[in-house]
Amino acid sequence: MEIEHPVQHKKEKAMDTGNWRNHYPVVDESKCIACGNCVKYCPEACIFLDDSEKAEASKSGKVAKIDLEFCKGCGVCAQVCPVNAISMRTEEGGNNNETKSKKDKEKTN
Ligand code: SF4
Ligand code: SF4
């Protein structure tokens, strides 16, 4: 099931909204049923359903993936997930432009 978000995600966005957040979402891929709610409601259009090989282990063959470069940590995705597959974690050290979540750090290592 492909869900088209009304806001097209632009990599060339003017603002790196990932720098705004105090919290970041983590998806439990074993719980995700790929319903697409989080994709539809994310105000930053930074969630997509991944159907790559890595997602095959999930129940539906797809899992929600979040682009933390643009996630502003609003928590809407966690609120609308019907199976509580998304949990919000606190950013280390609070919010400032130098703060990176563990996932961001992993991405850059
Ligand atoms: S926390 Fe907000 S901005 Fe980040 S992925 Fe969830 S809905 Fe989108
Ligand atoms: S709302 Fe929950 S179950 Fe639905 S795609 Fe997002 S993480 Fe998966």
Describe the structure in your own words.
With 109 residues, this protein is α+β, with helices and mostly antiparallel strands. It has one domain: Alpha-Beta Plaits, CATH 3.30.70.3270. It has helices spanning 37-41, 76-80, 102-108; strands spanning 23-27, 47-50, 63-66, 86-90. Strands 1-4 form a two-stranded antiparallel ribbon. The longest helix is centred in the C-terminal third of the chain and has 7 residues, at 102-108. The N and C termini lie far apart (33 Å). The structure holds iron/sulfur cluster (2 copies). One iron/sulfur cluster is lined by residues 27, 32-38, 64, 80-81, 83, 85-86.
Q: Can you tell me the CATH topology?
A: Alpha-Beta Plaits
**How many strand segments?**
4
What is the total domain count? 1
Q: Can you identify the CATH class?
A: Alpha Beta
- Main β-sheet: number of strands, strand sense, barrel status? 2 strands, antiparallel
Structural class: alpha+beta
**Beta-strand fraction estimate:** 15-25%
The shape, in one word, is: globular
Helix fraction by DSSP (H/I, runs of at least 4): 10-25%
Rg result: 14 Å
CATH architecture: 2-Layer Sandwich
Mean pLDDT: 79
Order of helices and strands: EHEEHEH
Poorly predicted ranges (pLDDT <50, ≥5 residues)? 96-103
Q: Distance between the terminal alpha carbons, to the nearest Å? A: 33 Å
Task: Count up the helices.
Answer: 3
Across the major sheet, the strand order is 1-4
